[in-house]
Amino acid sequence: MDLTLLSAFIPTFFFVSITPGMCMTLAMTLGMSIGVKRALWMMMGELLGVALVAIAAVMGVATVMLNYPQLFSALKWVGGAYLFWLGINMWRNRGKMSLNLETPTVTQRGQLISQGFITAIANPKGWAFMISLLPPFINIDLPMAPQMAGLLTIILMTEFVALLVYANGGKSLRLFLTKGDNLQYLNRIAGTLMMGVGIWLALG
């Protein structure tokens, strides 16, 4: 790999990853509502989605998706509607994701993984970022596979650290609110954030 390009890529991507966005807001919301440990399953799906977007952007699949905007738009609306529905249930203190200290929250792993995956691949800003950012950091005079593997490793590690930061921030907010027996407010804050992510995803 080109070490000069690599040294510039690491701080650039870290800055972009730590910037608030749909996936980071989702991580904070889940850290608040179900805890960091359970939120790891969402992070797994999100990282799979980010990896797919990065590889597809470099391989040119994004061009194919641009030729079928209706499919991409439908995916965004379905994912956004699902997140918005989850947010409504959290606001009303219903559903599996609502925090209840008496009845432990049980959230299926598959649902969390798919939730993170859909949010990642249906994020148009993520596609635009990967398409615009990755090519300048690839040296055409060097083999493509090892460069892509190295960049992808950095992307996933950086993204995972950023997700953990946001999820732990949500956990801290949860601990602060539960001290005063404010579970209803906690669920409403988390539900509002979740609905916001859904709208962001659908209209972004």
**Beta fraction:** under 5%
Helix content: over 70%
Q: Averaged pLDDT, please?
A: 78
Which radius of gyration do the C-alpha atoms yield?
Answer: 18 Å
The 3D shape can be described as globular
Report the uncertain regions: none
The profile of the biggest β sheet is: none
Tally the helices.
Answer: 9
Can you put this structure into words, describing what you see?
The protein is mainly α and 204 residues long. Helices cover 78% and strands 0% of the residues. The protein has helices at 3-18, 22-33, 36-59, 61-66, 69-91, 109-121, 124-133, 144-178, 183-203. Helix 2 packs antiparallel against helix 3 and helix 3 packs antiparallel against helix 8. The longest helix is centred in the last third of the chain and has 35 residues, at 144-178. The two termini are 34 Å apart. The mean pLDDT is 78.
Briefly, what is this?
This protein is an all-alpha fold.
Helices and strands, with pairings:
Layout: H1 3-18, H2 22-33, H3 36-59, H4 61-66, H5 69-91, H6 109-121, H7 124-133, H8 144-178, H9 183-203
Helix pairs in contact: 1-8, 2-3, 2-8, 2-9, 3-6, 3-7, 3-8, 5-9
Considering the chains and any ligands shown, give keywords for the structure.
globular; 204 residues; mainly alpha; 0% strand
